[in-house]
Amino acid sequence: MIMENSEKECLRMEPIDSQSPNKENNEVTADCVNNTDGVNNVENMLSQIEDTDYDPHMHRDRPNPTSNFETLVHLLKGSLGTGILAMPNAFYNSGLVVGVIATVIIGALCTYCLHVLVKAQYKLCKRLKVPILSYPLSMKYALEKGPRCVKWFSPYAPGLVDGFMIIYQLGICCVYIVFVASNIKQVTDQYWAPLDISTHMLILLLPLILINYIRNLKLLAPFSTLANLITFVGLTMILIKYMFQDLPPISDREMFGTLRNFSLYFGTTLFALEAVGVIIALENNMKTPQSFGGYCGVLNIGMTVIVILYIAIGLFGYIKYGSDAKGSVTFNLPPEEAMAQSIKIMFAIAIFITYALQAYVPVEILWTTYLDHRIQNRKILWEYACRTFVTLVTFILAIAIPRLGLFISLFGALCLSALGIAFPAIIEICVLWPENDFGPFKIMLIKNFLLIVFGLLGLVVGTYVSIVEIIKSFKPVPQTDLPSL
């Protein structure tokens, strides 16, 4: 969708379907938004006068909207990827007691910050009288109405958010390729002559390109349902067959990890729990977006199930494998057993399917924000070229990933500390700023300031520790606790 002012400056919305935003019902217009040539009075009026009768949810016209159930299925699949299989390794870094408590806290924090972001976006849409705003442009228009010290950064905000989103989602896709290829390799090596991991990735390249050609979330819903079913069955098999069998005493495990290792736990858990790009895209594409929030809304139900599963896998996985817990618990399964091999193949299929959902976000950002309006002819052909390019980039980067667990921690700390925690708090401050609506004793301002500090601290410390560990992994030292990829 596009909002144009008299100077032809465009406010791009984030269409979830890949149809061109310049067509028919995907276009809304409003005069004098963000016009710098003598329309400041109109801007002030827009910021002060809010039409209480305008409900952005009622004005959305999505070509292929998803139902509440379909959205929940996508939400679960978006968060039940390789991250949950890395939780035993995360608990090894945090210790049992800290791992359980911190996972609940981080899960609640991620859920709360997503609520903050969705509510702030809704308020901005109502203020601007538009049905939908993307995450990057929510940041931009929030900063424009925020404190004077941050207004100057508003033109650059969309690029910053897009950059974090693209890096994170491409990082997920890289991790997925490594995961699928590694699990398939462990199985096929038992029956045929071993092939290099890069060869397995090359074999996967064409299927990955083809599944990334699916152009809307409605068509992805059946695939996500299948992937969810496979994931739940696989997790159940791992718990019952391997983790619950011959458990060592809990006293053999550390209850509290070191502060340095906790940063690795933080990055891994944040990576696993916080699928902010996918979740915002899901909310934007819902048939009934008002059902997304609320105490019994889609978001809370989905995140509750996810946190419980993460704690179960992390807790019992660490008790079972201890310091031997690898970047994915499937790497700990006996390679020669048929049951273990079937589990690895099941998860490889589930994560392969989920690749399309994760790659959907960077494709939409690149295509709808930077390419679609610049291309006049053969749009479909060029869109498929964009989807192919994204897949090729993730394939090339996946070849260079040395260690799965460390890169999961890196991407979680680097991108999600900002996208999932700090940025929503900044947006809420700026949205509430014109009306000074921070509650008694400015409690909302203090709360958001603490979230910003926490997010930035997690970004700096977690990224630093992850990079140091990745550099160490290049040294010729035996890595017995990590899978050789």
From TrEMBL:
<keyword id="KW-0472">Membrane</keyword>
<dbReference type="InterPro" id="IPR013057">
    <property type="entry name" value="AA_transpt_TM"/>
</dbReference>
<feature type="domain" description="Amino acid transporter transmembrane">
    <location>
        <begin position="66"/>
        <end position="467"/>
    </location>
</feature>
<protein>
    <recommendedName>
        <fullName>Amino acid transporter transmembrane domain-containing protein</fullName>
    </recommendedName>
</protein>
<feature type="transmembrane region" description="Helical">
    <location>
        <begin position="226"/>
        <end position="244"/>
    </location>
</feature>
<dbReference type="GO" id="GO:0005774">
    <property type="term" value="C:vacuolar membrane"/>
</dbReference>
<keyword id="KW-0812">Transmembrane</keyword>
<feature type="transmembrane region" description="Helical">
    <location>
        <begin position="407"/>
        <end position="433"/>
    </location>
</feature>
<feature type="transmembrane region" description="Helical">
    <location>
        <begin position="96"/>
        <end position="118"/>
    </location>
</feature>
<feature type="transmembrane region" description="Helical">
    <location>
        <begin position="191"/>
        <end position="214"/>
    </location>
</feature>
<keyword id="KW-1133">Transmembrane helix</keyword>
<feature type="transmembrane region" description="Helical">
    <location>
        <begin position="381"/>
        <end position="401"/>
    </location>
</feature>
<feature type="transmembrane region" description="Helical">
    <location>
        <begin position="294"/>
        <end position="319"/>
    </location>
</feature>
<feature type="transmembrane region" description="Helical">
    <location>
        <begin position="339"/>
        <end position="361"/>
    </location>
</feature>
<feature type="transmembrane region" description="Helical">
    <location>
        <begin position="264"/>
        <end position="282"/>
    </location>
</feature>
<feature type="transmembrane region" description="Helical">
    <location>
        <begin position="445"/>
        <end position="467"/>
    </location>
</feature>
<dbReference type="GO" id="GO:0015179">
    <property type="term" value="F:L-amino acid transmembrane transporter activity"/>
</dbReference>
<feature type="transmembrane region" description="Helical">
    <location>
        <begin position="160"/>
        <end position="179"/>
    </location>
</feature>
<dbReference type="Pfam" id="PF01490">
    <property type="entry name" value="Aa_trans"/>
</dbReference>
